Amino acid sequence: MTMTVHPIQPVPLAEGLLARWRRIPVSVIVDLAPDRQIDPGVRPLRPADLQPALFGRAVTALCDPPDFGSVLRSLEFVEPGNVLMIAAGGHAGHAMIGDVLGGHLHRKGAAGVVCDGAIRDTAGLAVMTGLSVYSRSVNPRGPTGAAKGEVNVAVDIGGCTVNPGDLIIGDGDGLAALTPANLESLIDRAEAKLTLEAEWTARLAAGDKVGEIFGLP
């Protein structure tokens, strides 16, 4: 594999639509679109109560570990609010990113980084306020090359195909990746599910019977 950088022009997304999606937790998304879930083995760096919510459009880097050249090149394309998606095939032998490049993402205003592979320098990454970090594993051993990979290409992250410009949503439960088409087709159902869950909670708090609420025989 050599280094290839692909041109990309993400589909514009309406701010009003994005604002609606900011209210939707990953659990609701996965209930409605299980194929858009990223493998739960890709976990948040921080405990659930300390993990910043992740919400931003994907910039993708396809790696050929232990080479991390695509990660380096992808940094040129990260804009404020983006999420760097590193496809390392679950490789645990070498970290693809640490606090040096993570710090650069933080200074650029990135929303976060998701690595289907290993990261390192977790103590440094954990204190970067507002940078939401997810990975499959941690390894202090770094990469050993910087000449291979692809940038701005469709990648497999935890069994989910992620394209540049997809919307990445993450919380303490895990991650989901939504295409522009998903955003339009699912938002009404997602909001309805959120409303229904609020109704269930209110009825349980009011003392209604579980069987009545959930229609048990």
TrEMBL record:
Name of the protein: Putative 4-hydroxy-4-methyl-2-oxoglutarate aldolase
Binding residues for Mg(2+): D121
InterPro entries attached to this UniProt entry: RraA/RraA-like, RraA/RraA-like_sf
Keywords linked to the UniProt accession: Magnesium, Metal-binding, Methyltransferase, Transferase
Pfam families cross-referenced by the UniProt entry: RraA-like
Protein's UniProt keywords contain Iron: no
Species this chain originates from: Skermanella stibiiresistens SB22
Positions of substrate binding: G98, D99, V100, L101, R120
Cytoplasm recorded as keyword: no
